[in-house]
Amino acid sequence: MSNLTRRNFVAGATLATARAYAQVPGSGERIRIGVIGCGAQGSAHMRALIKMRETDNIEIANVCDIYTKRAEAASQLTGGKIVKDYRSVLDSKDIDYVLIASPEHWHHHMTMDAISAGKHIYCEKPMTHSIEESRAVAERVMNTPTIKMQVGVQGMSDDSYETAARHIKEGALGTVVLAQIDYSRNYTSDFWANPIDPDARPGENLDWNAFLGPARKRPFEPDRFFSWRRYWDYSGGIAADLFVHRITRMIKALDLKFPDSVVAAGGKFEYRDSPAEIPDTLNILLNYPRGMTVQLISSLANDTPVEHVIRGHKATLKFNPTGFEIVPQSSYAKENPIITHQKTGAEAVDLHHRNLLNAIRKNEALKCDANLGYYGVVATVMGNISYRARKYMKWDAGKQRAVAT
Description:
By secondary structure, the protein is of the alpha/beta class. The protein has 2 domains: 6-147, NAD(P)-binding Rossmann-like Domain (Rossmann fold), CATH 3.40.50.720; 157-191 and 232-346 and 377-404, Dihydrodipicolinate Reductase, domain 2 (2-Layer Sandwich). Helices cover 36% and strands 21% of the residues. It has helices at residues 6-23, 40-51, 53-56, 68-78, 86-91, 107-116, 131-142, 160-169, 208-212, 222-226, 237-254, 349-362, 370-389; strands at residues 31-36, 58-64, 81-82, 97-100, 120-124, 149-152, 176-182, 261-267, 281-288, 292-299, 309-312, 315-320, 323-328, 339-342, 393-396, 401-404. The strands form 2 sheets. The chain has a 10-stranded mixed beta sheet with strand order 14-13-12-11-7-10-9-8-15-16, with helices on one face. A 6-stranded parallel beta sheet has the order 3-2-1-4-5-6, with helices on both faces. Helix 7 (131-142) links the parallel strand 5 (120-124) and strand 6 (149-152). Helix 6 packs parallel to helix 7, helix 8 (160-169) packs across helix 11 (237-254) and helix 11 (237-254) crosses helix 13 (370-389). The chain is globular, with a radius of gyration of 21 Å. The two termini are 25 Å apart.
């Protein structure tokens, strides 16, 4: 196990189990939340959680951010107490679960610390920055069954994908051969470039070293802080920020786990002068053991959509804004009617949090648990390694690692 001895792992899991049993709220008890990371995504979560205060009996008790200005804004928004160090949030006996909305290179450390502290967890996607980190988290959660962990792929709160899985398993599509799905945008100037806040003063109101954390040490660079998704040290770019949403849908619908092989291509084709390290265009092909290819398509320089479809020998499943439709191939049209699914749920932050709350209170099944989070990270990280190394990647199932060939 990376970064853990077996003795420490077992001891930590035992301690977390004891703490968690002692603090599982009853169905009528208020659940108190600590927010770690108060940037744009964290703020979106807080706005949703505020609307859920009365209906779901919750309270945002603590807010934590390494940039004082953001922490103060979060406190003003929620009424939560400002806590400078996320570990102090975890030490608080008043906190039932934490929202981790930090940059992704911090997800693993914060999640493991939260488990040790006996806190339930909502961690923004991707679950971690690397395959090894995701494997460690999934193992730790599996061995600490009283901890509920939701991964922030909010699209899993749309029932279309679990319903699609049932139809596919029953043979509605025949043999599945290809799935395709996209997530594209178009920026008129530089891509994923956020404004630089002139109020930020490292060493005064911004803790740059705390931001870097496990990443390589370097002098402060404003763009790396405010637009961290553009840099490999902190983000997996398109694959981690966009594709993880899409591949998780296909993993759920097709009942997949780990790919056999992955290859990716792309580049910085439009925004050639951008300081961004990540590509503006990326495509990934993943072959899965049952004998199908999943195709992920994205460009941040053209937002023309691609149909989200699963192609089978007998029929094609087409996802749409209201659910999906299964349309038979012409050779099978007489014996197989069109099937239409009207979705319930949605890709919504509030529904995803409510699912976690119900898991804590009622043991409801999670929509995006740590295992599903792990499968998504493996797929997207293998794609990034293939793109960056210009290599064809294979999955070593025995050792659960990616291997370049």
